[in-house]
Design brief:
alpha/beta, 552 residues, 36% helix, seven-stranded parallel β-sheet, 15 strands
């Protein structure tokens, strides 16, 4: 029987934190001679085409748009059930994907589906196509969520007996025992329906659970159409981690991490779920590995590898950084979805001012403590509302910090800032992409986690990898104040402990860059071999992948 060329399809979740790792994964597979088709919602296909084709000449990557039955104008308000990522829209996506598959003469080798896309399991089961669940997060957070659920009875007893005690999980490093604070974090923001579900993403916000919804006392809370209560917290007696629903019937898991960073947690999850795990990350831009010596002499320009335009001219940002002493600048950024409350933004401003350390602060004003009303128009990146923030700052603040601080409203060239030798620290929410980008550039972190997996990422960075310090998190009113912020900045930027963290971060960068690229390629080889065997079992036909030798 003649051999047929295998194709892999990838379906990403919306959001930059999901798109960029998916694109990088597809590039790495395509670089090994593997044809890739990315199928995505119309709201992100322009970004996918730009980034997938950028400096990727010769890579066989095709982008297909999932057409919806109803195309709405961007600026028009819409009820939640017509949310661009709501239930109706997800059903339309599944139908559009079924139409695409029915037109194929040869089934794909597999579908790599972001675990947040809840309709993919049903689709793959219907067509008998092997499915690989894709996690853009790290392994530590998944391991903690699973362990807290598995050992819930022992942890409940521990909470009653001794609130200061820690629970040692078999397979976890001693420094990563489960403590009382690990049981109090809000569950990670999976869409309604339980992990891999289809529904709107959680609203941007501080991360605190919203207040009880309407209805008389004792009645069932009511939620706007398309919204649901937040998932049960870790340790709930009746619910497993939401992501476990997304891995049912999959042939294995691709995860955005590597053994050099998270070996114990990768091994723990693989043992518990009894499925193969391919740690093919971290899925950073390939340019990160061009300087495998870790010399730090090369500054990365975001514009060369990412489609999203920064809100500041990169040359202007570079000129400002060039004027500062080596390792003297604190980079402050909380990502695009969650961040401090409005009150904490003001406290952060005063804390940075009091610390008197040079800083670059990426400021966005679309973080909110509560849900927007159902008929609230969607915010669009680049709008005045999304890129403002002036009203959140204390009066006269910008004038007082002129020369000391640079405020960027909206989207920032994060890779450029982290790769610059003047950057000496990163005040971060510890989202996984930000964490690994900081590791890749040898920049220590001042951790300010907001919700979900960020707390476990922070614990990994502080306790296990020891390249971060934790900002003092309040236990009473839930707000981080200017004194705690100022003390944290000084600890990271001028103390002996901060210097030790910087030294460890630089050392980890060298190890990371010297080993990660080759180990990631080996993992992808193993992954492709597994798929070819699975394809032969499922369809009973011979397929081939021509693996190309990559330059080191």
């Amino acid at each position: 029987m003649a051999e047929e060329e295998a194709q892999i399809m990838a379906i990403p979740f919306h959001g930059q934190g999901h798109l960029f790792p998916c694109i990088e994964l597809c590039k790495r597979l395509a670089a090994r001679g593997q044809p890739i088709t990315i199928v995505a919602d119309s709201s992100v296909t322009a970004t996918l085409r730009t980034v997938a084709n950028h400096s990727s000449s010769g890579l066989r990557i095709t982008v297909i748009e999932l057409e919806s039955e109803e195309e709405e104008e961007e600026s028009a308000p819409h009820p939640d059930h017509h949310h661009p990522h709501g239930h109706d829209h997800m059903q339309q996506q599944q139908k559009a994907m079924e139409d695409i598959l029915q037109k194929l003469s040869t089934p794909p080798l597999c579908i790599i589906g972001d675990v947040m896309m809840g309709w993919i399991p049903e689709l793959c089961n219907k067509f008998g196509i092997p499915r690989v669940s894709f996690f853009t997060s790290g392994a530590c957070s998944l391991a903690f969520e699973y362990a807290i659920w598995k050992h819930r009875s022992a942890l409940d007893q521990l909470q009653q007996d001794d609130k200061q005690a820690a629970f040692s999980v078999p397979g976890f490093p001693p420094s990563m025992s489960i403590t009382q604070s690990d049981l109090q974090h809000r569950a990670p923001p999976f869409p309604p329906g339980g992990g891999g579900g289809g529904g709107p993403p959680p609203p941007p916000g501080r991360g605190h659970p919203p207040p009880p919804a309407g209805g008389p006392q004792g009645s069932k809370p009511k939620f706007p159409p398309g919204r649901r209560p937040p998932p049960p917290p870790p340790g709930s007696k009746s619910h497993s981690p939401p992501w476990m629903n997304g891995i049912k019937d999959c042939v294995g898991i691709l995860i955005n991490t590597c053994e050099e960073l998270e070996c114990p947690f990768i091994e723990y999850i693989e043992k518990e779920i009894e499925k193969p795990i391919w740690a093919a990350g971290p899925l950073l831009p390939s340019s990160s590995f061009s300087d495998q010596s870790g010399s730090g002499t090369t500054v990365t320009h975001d514009s060369a590898i990412r489609s999203k335009k920064s809100s500041i001219d990169e040359d202007q940002c570079l000129e400002w950084l060039n004027s500062k002493a080596p390792a003297s600048v604190l980079f402050v950024s909380f990502g695009s979805e969650v961040g401090p409350s409005d009150e904490e933004i003001r406290e952060l401003a005063l804390g940075l001012e009091a610390a008197q350390k040079p800083f670059i602060w990426v400021l966005q004003n679309h973080y909110h403590d509560h849900l927007p009303p159902p008929d609230h128009p969607p915010r669009h990146q680049g709008s005045d509302e999304a890129e403002g923030g002036e009203d959140l700052l204390p009066e006269g603040f910008e004038g007082r910090i002129e020369g000391l601080g640079l405020i960027i409203r909206g989207w920032a060239p994060q890779l450029l800032i982290l790769s610059h030798p003047s950057t000496g620290g990163f005040l971060s929410h510890c989202g996984w992409n930000s964490a690994v980008e900081s590791i890749d550039h040898g920049v220590p972190i001042l951790a300010w986690p907001i919700r979900g997996d960020q707390h476990y990422n922070a614990k990994l960075l502080v306790n296990d990898l020891q390249i971060a310090a934790m900002i003092d998190m309040p236990t009473q009113d839930g707000l981080v104040n200017r004194k705690e912020i100022g003390n944290g900045v000084k600890l990271l930027m001028e103390s002996e402990h901060g210097a030790q963290l910087r030294e460890r971060a630089a050392s980890l960068k060298l190890k990371f860059r010297s080993t990660n690229f080759l180990s990631s390629q080996a993992v992808l080889d193993t992954f492709l071999d597994h798929l070819l065997r699975k394809q032969s079992e499922v369809f009973g036909r011979n397929v081939s992948v021509q693996v190309q030798e990559l330059e080191e």
